[in-house]
User: Fold this.
Amino acid sequence: AQDDIDDLDDDAEATEVNFDVECSFNKGKTPFDDFKYENNIQMGMKIWYSDAYTSLKKWRKEKDANRKKTYADKIIESSWKLIKSDPEGKSIKKLKRRGTVKRIVLVAVRCGEVYIQQKNAEMLGTLLAHVKDFIGNSSKLNKYAVTYYNSTNNKVCEAKQYKAWIATIEKNEANKKNLKALYKGYLTTLIQLGAKDKAIEVGEEYLAFDPNDSEILDIVNGQKGDPYEILDSYRAKLSKNPNDKNTIERAAPLAASLDENEDAYKWLKILLKDKPSDKGLLTDLTKVSYKLGKYKEAISYGKNLTDADSRVFVIKSYIERGQFKSAYNIAATVQRD
Assistant:
């Protein structure tokens, strides 16, 4: 599977991953595609910006589902009207807030927050496609782009987005915590791709900035060393502290790649509680559950995944359960792809 760490034994070579691909967001339709504003655009922008801001504060606090939806709809409407009225940001440059941060970025951040809460990856992608030239202006828009690529299981573009995001942040003591979190996300994505050499390169890039970080050093050594010895070292750490999430995050995908399925299953389940929609975890759990004979769970984890390997495990799980019609239906989609 795309999200596995493949063949990490002493003689294994890194998986060849082509990062020279063009990444884009799916630009779908919106209810505001034909929107035109004939009056004073500057005044309109101020109104839409204010409406989005006011509605967002109410939306965040609101408990009633119907009222919350009303506020969400208002945020979305105001944001899109502002974006559509000035798609290239030419007029928005005159409406600056906090220095050079454009209002188009701020409303996109607010609209994106709603789409993420709604788990609406399609509209999140459409939003990002419209504001792609402004993503570098905002850490939150970079975060949304990473979230989008993760939700669509596009690990190559997820990795490239991490790289672009990191490039916007100055390497200094004040940014160390945020940089480490981004590098960890970048490394995790590279390891899931099986891009061993690239993961080592990126890890060493961070260590050049912070050579005393033992956690990143462990990750780099894990890519360089014998995987079974590394896994045993993780087991030793977890025997002393079973709730060490940082170690579990490193141990789980490694155990899955080595077919250490009992441990992989246990650790992946722990991680899934915090990230129930993570495609990488679901992909690994589909494979591991199948290999452990947990066919019902393999189907549950993998039924909405689109990569071919996960579908095959789901098909085999249906067959093991005697659900041949369901297996055929999934097999037909694999055949079409």
Remarks:
- Residues 1-12, 95-101 have pLDDT under 50 and may be disordered.
- The two ends are 16 Å apart (CA to CA).
- The beta strands are 96-97, 101-102.
